[in-house]
Amino acid sequence: MRRKIVAGNWKMNKTLPEAKLLLTEIDTYIQSKPPKCEVIVGIPFVYIESAKANHKDLNVFSEDISEHRSGAYTGEVSAEMLKSIHADGAIIGHSERRQYHKETDEQIGAKVKIALDNGLTPIFCNGEVLEERKSGRHKEVVKRQTEVALFGLSPEDISKVIIAYEPVWAIGTGETATPEQAQEIHAYIRGLIATQYGNEIADSISILYGGSVKPSNAKEIFSKPDVDGGLIGGAALNINDFSALIDIYSEI
Ligand code: PEP
Prior knowledge:
Blueprint: E1 5-9, H1 16-32, E2 38-42, H2 45-54, E3 59-62, H3 79-84, E4 89-92, H4 95-100, H5 105-117, E5 121-126, H6 130-134, H7 138-150, H8 155-158, E6 162-165, H9 179-197, H10 199-204, E7 207-210, H11 215-222, E8 229-232, H12 239-250
Parallel strand pairs: 1-2, 1-8, 2-3, 3-4, 4-5, 5-6, 6-7, 7-8
Helix pairs in contact: 1-2, 5-7, 7-9, 11-12
Bound molecules: phosphoenolpyruvate (PEP).
Residues 9, 166, 171-172, 210-213, 231-235 line the site of phosphoenolpyruvate.
C-alpha cells in the first residue's frame, strides 16, 4: 500500500504568531479527527524548531535544503542542522527554487542525497513549464528531471523519496491540470521508476500532484489511481481549506 499524503507548502508566508496559530489549528484538527492520510507541513526554516517543540507528532518539512554538508555557504541551511532541530524532511527542487535560484537537476539530486544521508525524507518536485507542455515536451522534461536527480540513488534510498509532480503552469495560477493529465504523467513517472528499479519499488513510491489544488477540485484529482495525494500551496495557508483537503482525501 502506498502512503496517501496531503502536504502543505507555506512558501514565504506567515509571521511567527500566524505560523504558531495555524500549526496549532492543524495539530488540533488531526488529533480530534485522525485522518486516513499522512499530513505534512512544509514551513519556513525559522519556524521548524518551535513547530517540532510544540507539535512533536506533526510531520514538519523545510522548503529547501543546502546541497553542501557544512562550511562557507553563507545563508544556507544544512541537512544536519535540520535534523538537529527535529525536522522530518525537506521539499526539494520546487519550481520556484528552479526558476528564481536557477537550481539544476544535478544540484537537486545532491540535495535529495544529502537529505537521505541525514535521515530526512525528501519531497522531490518535478514538472514542466507552459511552453514545454504546449510543445508536447512535458514527458521528456519530467524524465530528464527525474533521471538526473533520482536515478543515481540505491533502491533502498529511492524507496524513501516522495515525488511531487507539479506542472509549473498550474502553480499559484488557479489553473489545474485535468485529473486525466495528472494521471497520465503520474503513471508515466511510475513507469520510469519501474524500468529503472522494478515494479515493486515503483508501486510503493507516493507521487503527489501539485498545482492549484483546492477543496473544489481535489476529489477528482485525488481519486486517480496513480495520484497519491497533493502538495498544496495557497490552500495550505488556512485551516478551513487545508482541513477540507485532508477530509476529502480521507474519504476516498
Ligand atoms: C506549490 O507551491 O507547490 C503549489 C502547488 O502551489 P499552489 O497550490 O498555490 O498552486
